[in-house]
Amino acid sequence: MKALSSTVHNLEEVLATPIHYQKTASCGARLADLLSNLVHLHLQTPSHKKFTYSYSNYLDCGVPMSPMTSPKEDISKKWREIHGSCNWNTLLNPLHPWLRREIVKYGEFVQATYDAFNFDSFSENCGRCIYNRHDLFDKLGLKKNGYIVTKYIYGMSHIDMPGWLKMSHLADPWSKDSNWIGYVAVSNDTESRRIGRRDIVVAWRGTVTPSEWLEDLQDKMEKIGDGNVKVERGFYSIYTSKSESTRYNKSSASDQVMKGITRLVSLYTQKGEEVSLTITGHSLGAALALLNAYEAAASLPDLPISVISFGGPRVGNVAFRDNLHKMRVKTLRVVVKQDIVPKVPGLLFNEGLQKLYQITGTLKWVYTHVGAELKLDAHASPYLKHGFNLPGFHSLETYLHLVDGFHSTTSKFRSDARRDIALVNKARGMLVDELRIPKGWYKLAKKGLVHHAYGRWVKPIRRDSKPY
């Protein structure tokens, strides 16, 4: 036990010291040795992006070290506060552990839209979800969260379409203007009792890379509805576009998601249950989440609606923000200080100009953020590289890692953070090299091919044949 205590003390000293890559040889080796001693971590030199690492089930003192989420507390009597009834005034700094767990839960729902997206340009299902909705959470290890996927959402991609999809080898069978962009889910009975109501969730996917998003951003406003409400044209186009020539967007993403929401609201309110709507998204998905919340609040005025977004851009003008507030939509924006996406559009002409209200009056043409902000600093984590890495700072897994480690603006990274650090490098290379976790390690095994009963490698047959 003395040895363990000494190791923990030394580890805390190392983690409290910022890692500078000009002098990481001794510090990095010390960090790796201490981590190895503490959790019996066995590292193997990566080969061809494959790696092996394992945690022992228990330390010498019997403490389990397997990666796990924070404990599931019964929040049934506090769910309205956790979802913003008081605008999270007393819950963000320090970050309440119940709120932290809920933020991570919704973030993992969004991460599923990346992990299950079909990137294979040789596949006739390129741009579609790899799994059918009945298997999605099971395949991605999300069944523990207690939700059931009820509907997939597809969006038009005139602006969002990545270059690799434009170059698809199967352009004829796959509509290049339409791809999977999110889903609707609902809490099961057990989770509903824990969280105090039947929670409907909508998760929206962002673009494949932030560079594509920045390249395609139009930065032009479009008026919606009556009055002075304006939103960014590109976001609104993706949310509302439809075309009879597409396989999956004969109806717009807006029509699809609202149909799914209203069906569930009707189903559970008729049973006498309390129902809420939580909309979540990352990057472009955060923008779509706000547009979705605006429409849902106008259509279902008595429904409690909250938005939990990650790395979201500005979406609309002051009138858009004010209307969301009037409709009692609660919005919590999680942003990383080093991420530039939350700073656009309106890099110069944004809500900061409202400080000059006496001179300018209400500005109808400037972009403004909505709701409360949880601001994170990538440099607070001892596990992350501190060099300039735009895609890494914007990565949703980086966000979830920082949320899990955040306690307050005056505290160090949480020593009892429970989320697996290796997840940070699923698609990026943000972890310090001393941890020896290869970047971009998350790959679909065998490109999705399966070995069937007759010994041939074939594409698996999906059970769902309907577009929605």
Automatic annotation (TrEMBL):
Is Methyltransferase one of the keywords UniProt gives this record? no
What are the record keywords, sorted?
Answer: Chloroplast, Hydrolase, Lipid degradation, Lipid metabolism, Plastid, Transit peptide
List the InterPro entries: AB_hydrolase_fold (IPR029058), Fungal_lipase-type (IPR002921)
Compartments (UniProt record): Plastid, Chloroplast
The entry lists its GO molecular-function terms as: phospholipase A1 activity
Per UniProt, residues of the Fungal lipase-type domain are: 201-347
| One GO process term, biological-process aspect | lipid catabolic process
Q: Which GO terms describe its cellular component?
A: chloroplast
Instruction: Check the record and name the PANTHER family matching this protein.
Output: OS12G0614500 PROTEIN, PHOSPHOLIPASE A1-IBETA2, CHLOROPLASTIC
Family of the protein in this entry: Belongs to the AB hydrolase superfamily. Lipase family.
Q: How is this protein named in the record?
A: Fungal lipase-type domain-containing protein
Mind giving the lineage of the organism this protein is from?
Eukaryota, Viridiplantae, Streptophyta, Embryophyta, Tracheophyta
